[in-house]
Every structure is written in structure tokens, then in C-alpha cells.
Write a sequence for this structure.
């Protein structure tokens, strides 16, 4: 719940009707963040918000079209299929100046979901920076979190969140968002390092298939500095 | 020790005088693989081999210049600084046709060791493929293993090995090499996915610095398919 000292920012989850965005929205709503689910269709966004509210038994989420969601929120999370990435960013661009924008997009090229594909050698994060400009506090994160277990609030997600960006304060906010969703957020360096998380996702999709599992993830090891197993 | 049914291949570790290559060479020698340490300088290679033999108390390693090492081995591991990658591959090219070549190289651009840098958007693995041609059974692996603990044979290295390549049998051989060195090798997909391991290394270097640790690594989680922590 928000408290007087440190009220929680309102989060817009653009693409919050999808599995990944919807799962994150639910977890942040559960953690007490006011949530606005964004979609191209305001009606679908409202339906997704109603589901979140019903699951949590409280009024925690609203649904709106993407530009309205971005306008009324203080922190914007973009979780859309890569094919919709550019159009979505263009739709919210006028509403996000000065705000923290978290890009979750992975540049997968259907139907090949398990091979890394970086169009023109650039990450989705770099494309977002070029499109949104320097006035936005851009952070890249959450690409590797399997959507499979996000909606089970009792499930401890077995995946670290690699957080990259060039704005140190914004990165810390997003690391806190990872913790609020029950995961460990790791400062993984500058935005250019988003290539790691964006390329890990198709690799994990392939590992899921080859090892017949559903939610392979990653952990960063030895962060305690002890060097033991 | 080699046994009659499945004699272990002789491994050349090109760049085996370095910390990473030397550590891997020691572990494979310990596991019973005949080792040839390669270096531009045959003398330095002989010294490094003598050290391995002294540490293990047996005659397990020889030292030679790189082309001789590649010629006399059946499986070749290339662990050199990126600046020497192209020259090294050219030096051994004539000796590796039909053999499994494991590229460990990470395209770091000194002095910035903690930022991903892929020259012309290509991985070192893809550069190796272009340079060596299709007659070589190229595999990419071991980039993320911190050299810090490799020479401590009792140390359980806390890092999985992402193994990529387009030759399924060669990949299985390299996964077995990871196991022989005390690590878990994972089939991480086609060679193009080497971008994951190559970009993870500078990210881990940055994490080491930011979190004041020495040997951050990675694990792939949930491979048991249970989806629990």
C-alpha cells in the first residue's frame, strides 16, 4: 500500500493485456502500486483491469488506451510484441517526456522464436532511445521473466531481472519494481548492455523446447562475493 | 584417464598460457584428456605445460606453437584476447579442417571491459565461421566462466556453460568437456545465439565491479521442469 513518506508511483503497463505485461501488472497491483493497463483498445484494457481487480479483490487497476495510460501514469512499462514496438512508442511518445520508461520488448522475428534476431544490429532498447529521444528516462528490463508463473502470486519466480540504462536513479527505481514483483533486480550496466537480456529471451525459448521445460530463466551467481556454490 | 572404449581426444588449448585457457587446460588434464598448450611462443607454451604437469604430478600436457598444437590435436579450443582472434585463427586455419573448434573469444574493446561491443554487429563466433569456413565443426562456449577459480581444482565453479553451434554432435562433445571441467554445459542453440554468451561476459565484468565481487556467473534455472525455486 502507498504510505505517506514514499507514495508509490502510478505505473502504466502498455501492452498490459498480454501475458507478460498482464502478469507484471498484477504483481505490482498486489504490491500496492496504482496500475493503469494500456492497450490499443480501451475496452480490452478495461477488461484486463477488471480481471486484476477481481483477482485481488480491490480496486487497484484502471484500463485505458495506450496514450491515455501513458499520460496519466508516472512510470511507463512497455511490454508489446516486437512487431508493434515502433507504432506503440510513437503512440505514447508525446506523453512520456521526463518519465521513466521501461522497455520489456524482445526483437523476436516470428515464426523463429528461439533464434536471436537483432534487426540492423540494434536492440529494441536502442531503437526506443532513438525514437523517444534523450528527454525520456529509458530503462530496459524484465525480458527474461517467463510469463508462465507471473499470475500465480505465491510462485517465487526463479529468474533474476537484468536492468540496464544510462540513468542511475531510474535504474534503481526499476530494480525496486523487480523486488516488488518478487524478483531480484540487478544493475547490469548501460543501456547498450540490453543486448544481453534481449538475446537471452529467444535462447531461453529454445532451451525450454530442447529441455522440455516451460520457464527456464537465469540467475547471476556469486553476488555474495564468496565465490562458493 | 583414457579408457579403451572411449579414448579421450587430444585437446589443443590455443591461448593456453592465458588465465582462462590455462585454467581450462588444467581441468581437462586433471580429467584425463591429453592436452597440448598452444601459444605464439613455443617456449612459453612449454613452460605453461610444465606448470600443468607439476600441479597434477603427472605428464599430462605438452606445449607447442599454435599451428603445431592445432595440427597434433583432435579438438581445438581457442581462448585468446579479441585483438589476437583473427591472426590466431589464420595461423591455425590450415590445421583444423574437419575438427571441432571451440571458440571462447569475447569481443571486448579495451579499455572498456564492461560494455558490450560487437564489431559490425557480428559475434566473434560468426567472425570465426567466416574466417575458418564451413569445413570446421565450430562451437562457441566457456565465455562466461570466470578464470578466478579455475585453477583451484576443488572449487565448484558456479557458472553454467552456454554451448552454441550448428553441429549437434560437436555441441554434445563440448557439453561433455564442460562436465569434465566440473561445470554444467547447456545446449543454447545455433551459433548465432553465441551473441548471448559473448555479451554476457562484459556485463558480468561490470557486475563484478558494481557489486564488489570477483566471479559473478550465470545459471540457467528451472531446467528440471518443476518451475520451483
Amino acid at each position: 500500500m502507498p504510505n505517506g513518506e514514499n507514495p508509490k508511483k502510478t505505473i502504466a503497463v502498455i501492452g498490459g493485456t498480454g501475458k507478460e505485461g498482464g502478469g507484471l501488472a498484477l504483481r505490482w497491483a498486489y504490491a500496492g502500486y496504482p496500475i493503469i493497463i494500456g492497450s490499443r483498445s480501451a475496452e480490452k484494457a478495461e477488461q484486463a483491469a477488471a480481471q486484476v481487480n477481481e483477482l485481488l479483490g480491490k480496486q487497484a487497476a484502471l484500463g485505458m488506451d495506450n496514450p491515455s495510460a501513458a499520460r496519466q501514469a508516472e512510470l511507463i512499462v512497455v511490454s508489446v510484441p516486437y512487431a508493434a514496438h515502433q507504432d506503440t512508442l510513437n503512440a505514447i511518445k508525446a506523453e512520456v517526456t521526463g518519465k521513466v520508461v521501461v522497455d520489456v520488448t524482445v526483437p523476436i522475428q516470428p515464426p523463429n522464436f528461439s533464434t536471436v534476431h537483432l534487426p540492423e544490429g540494434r536492440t529494441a532498447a536502442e531503437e526506443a532511445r532513438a525514437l523517444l529521444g534523450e528527454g525520456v528516462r529509458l530503462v530496459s528490463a524484465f525480458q527474461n521473466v517467463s510469463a508462465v508463473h507471473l499470475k500465480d502470486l505465491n510462485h517465487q519466480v526463479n529468474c533474476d531481472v537484468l536492468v540496464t540504462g544510462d540513468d542511475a536513479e531510474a535504474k534503481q527505481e526499476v530494480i525496486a519494481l523487480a523486488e516488488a514483483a518478487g524478483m531480484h533486480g540487478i544493475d547490469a550496466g548501460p543501456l547498450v548492455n540490453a543486448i544481453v537480456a534481449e538475446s537471452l529471451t529467444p535462447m531461453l525459448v529454445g532451451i525450454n523446447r530442447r529441455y522440455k521445460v516451460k520457464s527456464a530463466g537465469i540467475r547471476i551467481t556469486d553476488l555474495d562475493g564468496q565465490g562458493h556454490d
